[in-house]
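I am writing to request your help with a piece of structural work I have in hand. The matter concerns a single protein, recorded as an amino acid sequence and a row of backbone structure tokens. Could you please explain, in whatever detail you think fit, how the structure tokens follow from the sequence? Thank you for your consideration; the sequence and its tokens are set out here:
>
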Amino acid sequence: MIGIAALAVGIVLGLIFHPAVPEAIQPYLPIAVVAALDAVFGGLRAYLERIFDPKVFVVSFVFNVFVAALIVYVGDQLGVGTQLSTAIIVVLGIRIFGNAAALRRRLFGA
């Protein structure tokens, strides 16, 4: 319940203040969002399977975002940032859809 309230407050504050993302961070934001979504879907799956551990969730959330951003940063330094960004999106997308399929099976039995 607290998470839903925090999400609602965050959305309202974002709509009111229109925060600007610094240009230096813009290439990393989509990757960070997808990495965070991967952790959220994994957490939902673990919750429904009754194996959810808040400590594991927080570490997974932070670590996924950090590692994904680090890989994109290294790729940018090597001149292959776009290719590595695509690879990260594909890998995390596969994980998200795998977790979504597990959620669907658990919730709907299909």
Remarks:
- The mean pLDDT is 91.
- The chain has one domain: 23-108.
- The CA atoms of residues 21 and 29 lie 9 Å apart.
- DSSP finds four helices and no strands in the chain.
